[in-house]
């Protein structure tokens, strides 16, 4: 199924599967894909799906819609195309275009936003070395009303926290997981240390703190 992976400053913040004939994108809350940023128009663009083909249409937005760096009015999308809406980058994936693509292609090295790849401390395998896939992992809640709950990290990106207060993302890389600050005045802590602007690699047993909630990253 075609999908869109939304990122800003190299950090993936959401993934949306396209299942409707018309999917709208914009700042207003009634859009299918909501991007709450003043550079994004209330009704910015629409994605039209016919079978497995998807086209993007700019809805007379103030700042325009760009595909691979070029302003468009309406354009058919190809697997791997990057839409730019304000400061947000939205990568389009459609495995059905090529049966050689695996369902997990978004996890492969080089398929994450370049800024994350450049800043992440997770080491890349050397050329010719066999790749080690990311292990199964989860976030275990240790305090608060949700204590004891375990969230499996099966998606490309899993967001944790309290929307509007503090949100972080845990992104599955090809051979590990990284934690990044998404929103809120206070970034999350890893083992008592507040993280900065760069994604931080997670290790089994790491203790996390976000919006007053204690959590633990565990490899299953």
What is the second-level CATH architecture of the largest domain? Sandwich
Distance from N terminus to C terminus (CA atoms, Å) equals 28 Å
Number of folding domains?
2
Shape: elongated
Radius of gyration: 18 Å
Let me know the average pLDDT: 79
How many helical stretches? 1
What structural class do the secondary elements suggest?
mainly beta
Give the DSSP E fraction (strand runs of 2 or more residues). 35-45%
Helix content: under 10%
The helix/strand series, from N terminus to C terminus, equals EEEEEEEEEEEHEEEEEEEEEE
Write down the CATH topology of the largest domain.
Tumour Suppressor Smad4
The low-confidence parts are: 98-125
Side-by-side strand order of the widest sheet:
2-1-11-10-7-8
Total strands = 21
CATH class (first level) name of the largest domain: Mainly Beta
Largest sheet: 6 strands, antiparallel
Domain FHA: 23-72
InterPro entries: Cell_Proc_Reg/RNA_Proc (IPR050923), FHA_dom (IPR000253), SMAD_FHA_dom_sf (IPR008984)
Protein name: FHA domain-containing protein
Describe what you observe in this structure.
The chain has about 220 residues and is an all-beta fold. The chain folds into 2 domains: about 90 residues, Tumour Suppressor Smad4 (Sandwich); about 80 residues, Sandwich (Tumour Suppressor Smad4), CATH 2.60.200.20. About 5% of the residues lie in helices and about 45% in strands. The chain has 1 helix and 21 strands. A 6-stranded antiparallel beta sheet has the order 2-1-11-10-7-8, with no helix packed on it. Strands 13-12-21-20-17-18 form a 6-stranded antiparallel beta sheet, with no helix packed on it. A 5-stranded mixed beta sheet has the order 4-3-5-6-9, with no helix packed on it. A hairpin with a 3-residue loop joins strand 14 and strand 15. The chain starts with a strand and ends with a strand. The relative contact order is 0.14. About 15% of the residues have low confidence.
